Task: structure prediction
Amino acid sequence: MTRRQASSTRRSDGTFSFSGVFNSKSKSSPLLSLIPVLLGGLFLIVYAFGGSGLFRGRRNVVSRAEGDFSCTFEVQSAFPILKNVYGNNMKNVLHVGPESCSVVSKLLREGELEAWGVEPYDIEDADRSCKALVHRGVVRVADIKYPLPYRPKSFSHVIVSDALDYMSPKYLNKTLPELVRVSADGVIILAGSPGQQREAAQLSKFGRPAKMRSSSWWKEFLGETNLEENVAAVKKFEQAASKMSYHPTCQIFHIKSYN
Result:
C-alpha cells in the first residue's frame, strides 16, 4: 500500500512562513530519511515475532472470525474445565494431534502434571523449542494409523484434537481403541462439527479434507466399536463449563478407558 507522505508545510497560528519552511526542511531532512528505515525495521520485527508465536493468539482470533477454527487451540481453553472434571486423577496427559508441541509446552509450564505429545505429521518446519521436545522424547512424530509406542495405561488421560477428523472409519476402528488402550482414566476427543471449516495449514499437512461428523455419528460409531462414553464426566464438564461461562467451539467427547 502506498504510504502517504506528510506535507512539509504546516500552519501554526494562521500565518505561513516560507523561510520557516525552508529552515525546517534543511534541519530535519536527515531525520525524515531515517523514518522509513525505522518503520521498515519495526515491521520486520513484528512479522518475525508473529511467526515465532508471540502474536499467534491474535492470528487464532482472526482465523476464527473468518470462519476457520482449530480444536487444538480449543484444548488450551478447555483444559481448566477438564482439570475441574477429573481433578487429581489427571496426572500425566498425552496429547495427540497437530501443534502438539505448543499444547505440551503450555501444560508443562502449568507445573501441575506431566505432559507428552504425538505429532501425526512431519515437523520439518517446527521451531527450535518443538524440535527440542522431540529430541528429548517428550513429543514423538508417529503415524497414528498404527499402534502407538506406549504400554497399556501409560497415561492417566489422552486428549486428541484435529486428528480423528481426517481419518476414515477404517482407520478410526484401529486408532481410537489404541488411544483408549494407553489411557488409564479416559480419552477426551475434540472434533469439528458439520459446517465448520478447518484451517488451511492443517489441510496441507494432512493432504485431505476433514470429515466433520455430527454428534449422533460419533455416538453410533462408539457403540459399534464397543467404546463407552463417560456420561458422568460429560455431565460434570457441562456443569463446570456453565459455571465458568465456557462455550466450546468443538465437539467434546469423554470416553472411558478399558477396565
Q: What stands out?
A: The chain has nine helices and eight strands. The longest helix spans residues 18-52. The longest strand covers residues 114-119.
